[in-house]
User: Which sequence fits this backbone?
């Protein structure tokens, strides 16, 4: 059975710590797929005890976003976690996490990552999203007090921002980043892929194709960022609503003129109205 | 010798925790006086080990405020701490706390308390002050990982906001609030009293006099908030630049029409250009 309340998680973790065991946290919004599974497996390898949180976090969704529609599959998530030997599935209600009141920065303390990291890529259209992410992640860190926490490279901007938060606020946790898991077709796994038709899934391959093509151009010696971006446009049709294609420093998210091995290429594109993201490191891994 | 770096503090605390000892933190900006001393004594009574941090936190000062001028008396502070049996005096540099770069919310992750708690009292004139306070307090909590942290009631808005942060972010620490310490004259102790002349110290008594008078009016049965506020004006002369006088709920900082035993009266007033604050609970304590 999932644990719903904070105090029960704390009690368990306290016991583990007394025994000198290490604790890993995999924070998720549920609708678990093989991408999450790879995080859980990595956590099991790294830590003595593993907590998976399943919480669709209201404060990271904008008013026009898919909070209500977001897939919720707790029973299946729990089965998956059990079969992987997860010690606790922590699935709190919004009220358990935020109390009963209205959720706004008039009434709640927020963690606000630096504008420089936020005002670009997904943060440009998803205003307040990363404040909501950092706030819930810090809450989960404070509840579970993990030694390690596991995040997917899929949400690349998120990982950079969470790492920055951990550094800036001296949070005593080590962030482990795990590679993107893809379908055989190349499509990056995402809980939002459930919204796509079969046709849409084919159209969605444009994201990984654009990234792969930029990477192979880079490996052939093209480093000019404008030239690399140019290569994308031949892939796009009227099925694709490109939101951004950026080529940045993978650690600082700074713009560069020339790509190098510390470069990440990030893309966001709507297909059938579904917002999909993907990315690739030019320097491998 | 004070400990200057974060890793040394962490190492010590880790050893203490291994031994099952409880840890108390008294966060200060130094220039320690008997008010701080009362916090340290309370911490020594409550905890097995006590850390006093001495850090004039740049990000809680506005550009026109007294960051450069703020009194720094580390040698004396350390002696006082030693004589009280403090285990660690943690006195980091700004660079140790924030890195070498520019300090702004373009470059750093901030903790932002709710607008409702911030947009009043001291927060009204000290824009960004409580973001800076919460950010440094959370950093100190994450570095020291105390079981208990000790704050003075003198900075009443600060304590309410820190308690709110702890609740909202599930920070695993218990906040202990200690009463205001006063000179025999009634003047609340403050590191900023050092800026005052002898004459100014006399003029500064107006703060505690106004508060005491409101409290005795309340005890005589006057509960109407406007009427209670009115009583203050006869005390003020041209030596006093009143910034605010507010009568609020002591836990939520909500306005009320009628005072009751959960009410706090807060005052801020400049004397000789020095900004002084004071407060009193109408319900005792």
Assistant:
């Amino acid at each position: 059975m999932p644990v719903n309340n904070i105090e029960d998680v704390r009690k368990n973790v306290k016991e583990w710590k007394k025994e000198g065991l290490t604790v890993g946290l995999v924070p998720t919004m549920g609708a678990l797929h093989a991408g999450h599974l790879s995080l859980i497996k990595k956590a099991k390898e790294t830590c003595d005890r593993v907590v998976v949180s399943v919480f669709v976090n209201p404060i990271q969704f904008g008013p026009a976003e898919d909070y209500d529609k977001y897939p919720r599959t707790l029973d299946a998530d729990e089965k998956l976690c059990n079969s992987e030997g997860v010690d606790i599935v922590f699935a709190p209600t919004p009220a358990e996490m935020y109390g009963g009141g209205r959720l706004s920065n008039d009434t709640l303390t927020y963690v606000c990552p630096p504008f420089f990291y936020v005002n670009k890529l997904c943060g440009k259209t998803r205003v307040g999203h990363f404040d909501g992410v950092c706030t819930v992640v810090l809450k989960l860190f404070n509840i579970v007090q993990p030694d390690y926490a596991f995040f997917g490279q899929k949400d690349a901007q998120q990982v950079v921002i969470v790492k920055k938060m951990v550094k800036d606020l001296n949070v005593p946790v080590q962030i482990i980043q795990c590679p993107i898991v893809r379908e055989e077709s190349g499509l990056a796994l995402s809980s939002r892929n459930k919204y796509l038709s079969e046709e849409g899934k084919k159209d969605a391959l444009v994201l990984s194709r654009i990234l792969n093509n930029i990477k192979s151009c880079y490996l052939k010696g093209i480093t000019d960022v404008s030239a690399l971006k140019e290569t994308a446009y031949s892939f796009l049709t009227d099925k694709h609503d490109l939101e951004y294609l950026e080529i940045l420093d993978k650690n600082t998210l700074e713009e560069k003129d020339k790509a190098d091995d510390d470069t990440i290429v990030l893309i966001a594109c709507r297909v059938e109205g579904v917002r999909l993201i993907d990315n690739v490191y030019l320097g491998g891994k």
Chain B has two domains: 6-178, 191-280.
